[in-house]
Amino acid sequence: MGKSETRKLQQTGGSTFIVSLPKPWVVQNGLGPKDQVKIEWRPNGSLRIIAEAASVRRRPEIDIDLDDTAKPFLLEYLIGAYLSGAQLIRLRTKTHFEKEVRKILRRFIQTTRGVEVISESEKTIELITMLNPQDMPLLSSINRIYLLISSSMRDVSDALIRNEIIDIEDATEKEKEVDALRLLLERQTGQILVSASMSNTFGTDRWEAAELTNIVRSMERMGDHAYSIACLASELPIPSDLDPEAMPLGALPLWQSSFKLLMSNLRKLRISEVQKTKGMITTMIKTLDAYEEQILRGVSDDVQAALFYDKLSEYIRRMLAYTSDMAESLINIHAYRNNKEVILPDIMR
Questions:
Q1: Domain 61-129 CATH class label
Q2: CB 29 within 8 A of CB 54
């Protein structure tokens, strides 16, 4: 059956217009006479028909043949299946599941949210996603990512200032949780893009869902660089002359305040604040660029300290750049919300 059809309107009773529904669609959804369908009027003027009384239950499933899947790419394939919205992932093999495959499966389950093994035999393993989309609102998950990244960066900053040992295990756990939440959010926004009914479930439309995905990816990159700073401080000695008010560490307060302000604008957009913040970030990025150039051109007796400062500046600069990307996405959302369709006069058609 095609994705679209053209049908003629008919008038009945003098004031009511009717249009027939395609029979294959009615049969596919298990509908019959007197069953009700929901009609939604979309913001762009189109109508959407939802088979609320459908008796047919569906579940997205993916089968993975391990004999045709290269083991180095199995984790990526599993994550792809998860992001696609599959509720059931079934793995098959003609022989048996090797130890390496089981290790990859455990890592996949740890990397995602709500995935459990529900059935296992010698040649088949079935995994199911138990999480109900409504149990994890989009903005709540995004806020959780913000809290994890902010907390991780605050801990790292405090350790740098006090010249203390970084708790790399805690930083690693937070990094893993951020990655898992990012995958969950990409799965959810993907479901919104594929299924119009999911838009109501999550309370956002498809266009904004795409921009939210961009925001989440920017945040996840910030988390990556926060983790990189933690690794840097655990691998190289922290310079004794590290000044929290001088570059590059002096740029962190701007990143922290900007990140917090942009997060508050996710719920209620104040576009002038976003624009002002983006301008301040751009200026700070240029300052850090100049600082790194100065390190490269300078001659230092302490090569390790110079390397530390250069890498620290790079990571903070990249965090600011991704914060700027987040601001751009918010500006895009603001423009979209203010975009209105108008009826053109006949002379312009």
A1: alpha beta
A2: yes
